[in-house]
């Protein structure tokens, strides 16, 4: 196959602020800091990255695509992310073992339980 996954685009009101929040949350590095474009990656030469761009409209409904993360300690990671500014959200997930959070601009993501085995 000739495709390489480069990045995930994230629409935002403030690309730098949101990008810096995600860089802190993930422990990633900033690789592009332009006025309307802010990119982070796991390391400078590692893909894929997250590219934050400016859009004029606010987020209205739940994301059609979101990120899932599997930490070693779900409770500790949820507490850390909440302390960084994430918020708990209910998008109709019901009673599930994962925790659904939103970043400071309302983009949902899930913190899963530790992988079995």
Radius of gyration: 15 Å
CATH class of the largest domain: Alpha Beta
| Spans of at least 5 consecutive residues with low confidence | none
Task: Let me know the average pLDDT.
Answer: 94
**Shape descriptor:** globular
**Major sheet description:** 4 strands, mixed
Give the CA-CA distance, first to last residue.
Answer: 32 Å
- Enter the CATH topology name of the largest domain: 2,3-Dihydroxybiphenyl 1,2-Dioxygenase, domain 1
> CATH homologous superfamily name of the largest domain?
2,3-Dihydroxybiphenyl 1,2-Dioxygenase, domain 1
Count of all domains: 2
Order of helical and strand elements: EHEEEEHEEE
State the total count of DSSP E strands. 8
Written account of the structure:
There is one protein chain. The chain folds into two domains: 7-55, Signal recognition particle alu RNA binding heterodimer, srp9/1 (2-Layer Sandwich); 66-117, 2,3-Dihydroxybiphenyl 1,2-Dioxygenase, domain 1 (Roll), CATH 3.10.180. The strands form two sheets. The protein has a four-stranded mixed beta sheet, with helices on one face. The protein has a four-stranded mixed beta sheet with strand order 5-8-7-6, with helices on one face. It is globular, with a radius of gyration of 15 Å. The longest helix is centred in the first third of the chain and has 12 residues, at 15-26. The protein has 117 residues and is an alpha/beta fold. It is built from two helices and eight strands. Residues 4-114 form the VOC domain. This is VOC domain-containing protein. It comes from Actinokineospora alba. Pfam families: Glyoxalase_6 (PF18029).
């Amino acid at each position: 196959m000739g495709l390489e996954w480069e990045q995930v685009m994230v629409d935002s009101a403030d690309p730098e602020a949101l990008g810096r929040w995600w860089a802190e949350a993930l422990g990633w590095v900033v690789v592009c800091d332009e006025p309307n474009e802010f990119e982070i990656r796991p390391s400078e030469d590692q893909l894929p990255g997250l590219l934050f761009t400016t859009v004029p409209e606010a987020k209205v409904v739940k994301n059609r695509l979101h990120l899932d993360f599997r930490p070693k300690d779900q409770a500790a990671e949820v507490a850390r992310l909440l302390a960084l500014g994430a918020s708990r959200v209910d998008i109709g997930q019901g009673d599930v073992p994962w925790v659904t959070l939103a970043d400071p601009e309302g983009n949902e993501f899930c913190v899963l339980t530790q992988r079995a085995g």
